[in-house]
User: Fold these one by one.
Assistant:
Number 1:
Amino acid sequence: MKEVIESTNLEKQLTRHHEGDSDYTHQGTGSSKKVLIASVCLTLGYAVIEVIGGFLSNSLALLSDAGHMVTDSASLFFALLANVLAGRPASGKYSFGFAKLEVLAALLNALAMFAVVLWIVVEAVERFSSPEPVNGSSVFLVATLGLLINIAVAWTLSRDQKSINTRAALLHVMGDLLGSVAAITAGIVIYFGGPVIVDPILSIFVSALILHSSWGVVKTSVHLLLDGVPDNIPYQEVGSTLEAIPGVYAVHDLHIWDMTANEAALSSHIVLERMDEWPQVLEKAREVLEKKYGISHITLQPEPVEEMKKRFMCIGE
């Protein structure tokens, strides 16, 4: 089949289009990077303090919350990594760039957190049968510090609402507040003579938070690594929309996937009734795909209807 090459003017339009995408993607990158660096330092620094405090006070609630903080530190770091890698151009060896590194790192982090949760739950179950003394005042002080740091991180992230990575990280950090509140509750109950069993109970509660966030990361990461169709794009409807364009006879080999967490791509074969209508069909297809579905990275290959009919005739024989 003869391949139809797009006109020079259209190539120039596509070049300008991609340059515009690049400008938009990196808008506010500097401020986002500073905000994320500050948030990573605060969250990870407190996680270290909480681990030390958890061992010294013998509190599982603090240790489980520390695990949650490490999860959030990692998510903030991945957002920072994506921010940095977004500025690196694609190369001859990596034509799609390096955005998938963020996805791979997120998946590995989530899987590692499953091991942390398993350890916490095993320790908690043992403490149900053999309770151990816990220093309630230490738990209260360290967890209160954590609450203040979480508030500071949330405030820092809220200052940058241009980056979708930052907004996603902000939602993740808000969950930390629950972990800190749980640890503070355990410290208060134990300090005032309450049962020490409240510590492993609340540690399991925080572990459930870790599992919830980690499982969400695993599902999203696997979906992206398998080049799944973005959740907000109706696959069948996109195909029908392309077929409804005047001059289009049929659509096949339609693929839609996420190039990054926020940028979808599409490729497809477009069967035309008349090949000389391809420039108009291409322009209309690009317009409807971008305006209706937000798909800006588009690769379409035209085919004459006679070619498809010949193919089906061969199959029939």
Number 2:
Amino acid sequence: MNTQKGFTLIELMIAVVILAILAAIAIPSYTQYVDRAECEDGKALITGAANFMERYRAQNGGSYANASLNGFGSNSETFGVVITNAAAASYTLTATAQGRLNGNLTLTQANVRGGSLAGQCNW
């Protein structure tokens, strides 16, 4: 008597359906995790830049004028930070997303937070 070895078409289709269900659950969860991680990277970078600006003000007679982020690592894989609107008593930092996210985060000397990613990143 000949016994056949292998899988039937129905067994293979059941395996494919199970894999599809697992992928449908796992892929959106993974992308949400990656987005949250990139948001945290941006928030950490802009907060570090704000600390750098406060050190600059303490070393320069209480003024933010002519400040630059040259001594601060102002770029990461996912965000880049620049100073905008720097004056003697105020500044605005803008962290622009360079990875999967699309938008920016802003922070002022008065700790006013904003930007197009503020809602998505819980900023």
